[in-house]
Amino acid sequence: MRHPETEVVTATIESATEIRPFHVEVPEEELDDLRRRIAATRWPERETVADESQGVQLATMQELVRYWGTEYDFRRFEARLNALPQFMTEIDGLDIHFIHVKSPHENALPLIITHGWPGSIVEMLNVIGPLSDPTAHGADAEDAFDVVVPSMPGYGFSGKPQDTGWGPVHIAAAWIALMRRLGYTRFVAQGGDWGAQITDVMGAKAPPELAGIHSNMPGTVPPEVVKTLGSGQAPSGLSADESRAWEQLNFLYTKGIGYATEMNLRPQTLYGLADSPVALAAWMLDHDARSYEDIARAFEGEPVGNLTRDEVLDNITLTWVTNTGVSSGRLYWENKLGFFDVKGASVPAAVSVFARELYQAPRSWAEQAYPNLIYFNEVDRGNHFAAWQEPELFATEIRAAFRSLR
Fold it and tell me: Among this protein's residues, is 97 annotated catalytic?
């Protein structure tokens, strides 16, 4: 006997869990409109200081705009994305966009990598090849990964939440659901920036499929230290490494997170991010002092690592054409966790400390934060956008971090 009601329910479930191929195709009129807006930029006067202490400098922005409006080729970037296998799937009522590259090598370890703000999947494009096909990049087949790179809700081509509730904890649960939907019964997770928070939360949730996590911006700061940040008074008894970390974080909390404060409190106010490409570009460049220094050099013709002007503009243009300047910022409003606080991850954990990260996590704090710490390493270069700026070094770190879990 047929049961129409059951058939309807089954069909709904199947459509909700369907994985659909995705192809990027931005209408030419949108790019024409972008160029018109860039050409019509109204500039303020130059900053009244000789450094970046007042924000993104006029010379940097004018060179960015000149290149963006006259030489930058979005179709090159679009073709680059479309050369990768991209998909959409609905999780908790929201479309999630993701790249899924399976390794040509047997026994590859499934890996989900999460980007941050003001980043996107653009951050990870140059590590997909080295991680999924290591032999093509001078490494061993035994270190191969199946690589999954999702766009966070409100970012890139993923859906924009229409209701509240899509914070890091919800995203962590969605990523676990995504990896299960892809059929993976054992996987590892990696992240920096927001991706680090989300990955730490996944490690705290500790689903049976999650074999381990890796962070390049770990949450390690002890609660008693967190209470002193922004006060100007360091707690007593810190080691040299811990004192260095406290000073870096205290600077960040007092001088370096104006953007985060605005998005945490009033993200909807940032209408300029949807209306003005130059407002969006300046906002996205001004993440942290060290990253800004490196990005500014790209527009002076001296890129640091892989942070070229095209790479930087790929990320900004993706945000512009998807109109996700405001929707991506709402993640700060949704967040209820401390950026650098311990999240309680219990699964095997690995940490890589890049030279110009927001803070240099001390090994002593990492050992307390991750009771099952399987790897800790400090490297000599790379900033907050480690995968983006130093993809080969980043891939080397990921291979080493998870080698013991294979």
Answer: no
